[in-house]
């Protein structure tokens, strides 16, 4: 009698597994992908901890260096970039269309007194379910046209602050590199560029645009994972400290 009960239970379990196989597969894959994603996040955080967890003393050194560079270029550090309200409205309503992103880029260049004719902008629109390898990049000399180029990768869940922050960072690269101002260490140079962008008046956008975002994404039908993203090289704490120190230069 017990043998028949055991067989019946095994058959029943087998039937339930077969009937709910799709749900079980989804659950296992969700756990697997989430685990791998979280592991990847921890690895990235561990790898970048020493590069991004900056001390106030180091931020101050970047501030002093940026102030020295801007003084030598004759650029004031007590200004603040203010986005044209009409352009902001167009950007929001068009969901960052190419026409108005280019107009934003040119407005930032004009604010920095940079020649828009000597640099081009390439815009890539990328699905939000993908993790970006980079949000923006600046090339001093394009291979095809031998001109400077800024590339920006835009995702539909980016905020206005993030778009402005990316363009401000890459435009600051243009300003510094065209004047042969560059640190040898890549990460240090990126941090100096961020600090310089703050001192040029983009801090209020960067403190919002550089925030870490958490999103649920579906890579495939049953693959669910958490996407943890951020742009820039300074943390919220770093930018907040830099903005506080910047007050001493306000007139």
Descriptive account of the structure:
With 251 residues, the chain is of the alpha+beta class. The chain folds into two domains: 1-53; 55-249, no CATH class. The chain is built from eight helices and five strands; from the N terminus they run αααααβββααββα. It has helices spanning 2-19, 21-52, 56-72, 85-93, 98-111, 160-178, 186-209, 236-246, and strands spanning 119-125, 136-139, 148-154, 213-220, 223-229. A three-stranded mixed β-sheet has the order 1-3-2, with helices on one face. α7 crosses α8 (236-246). The radius of gyration is 24 Å and the shape is elongated. The model is unreliable at 25-51 (pLDDT under 50).
Kindly report the oligomeric state of this protein: single chain
Integer-rounded radius of gyration:
24 Å
Determine the structural class based on helices, strands and strand pairing: alpha+beta
How many distinct helices?
8
pLDDT < 50 runs, ≥5 residues: 25-51
Average the pLDDT over all residues and give the rounded result: 80
Distance between the termini: 93 Å
Strand order of the largest sheet: 1-3-2
Give the overall shape, derived from the CA principal axes: elongated
- The total of beta strands comes to 5
Strand content: 5-15%
Percent in helix? 55-70%
How many structural domains can be distinguished in the coordinates?
A: 2
The arrangement of helices and strands along the chain is HHHHHEEEHHEEH
Main sheet attributes: strand count, strand direction, barrel closure: 3 strands, mixed
